Amino acid sequence: MATGLASHSSNFNLHFDSSCTGCGACIITCPTHALIPTPKKISLIKDACTLCLDCIEICPIGAIRTIGFNSDA
Ligand code: SF4
Ligand code: SF4
Prior knowledge:
Blueprint: E1 13-16, H1 25-29, E2 35-38, E3 41-44, H2 54-58, E4 64-67
Antiparallel strand pairs: 1-4, 2-3
The structure holds iron/sulfur cluster (SF4) (2 copies).
One iron/sulfur cluster binds next to helix 2.
């Protein structure tokens, strides 16, 4: 498991790029089951996400990125 961020920001979100293939690797990897498949590919349950960023590491095409940290609102 990757090292999570020290503090949990209420402003964060994960963006899933339209290039997402729906392979499901991020869903399987998420230790807190914060990712669920939807008709639009993937949705994040923010309250369940610990920001470990494992999903970003596992995505084979780099389709996930964080938004809402610092000035990157
Ligand atoms: S950052 Fe970690 S806890 Fe949050 S959705 Fe990704 S794998 Fe799950
Ligand atoms: S691992 Fe990447 S390509 Fe696969 S479902 Fe998740 S976001 Fe989409």
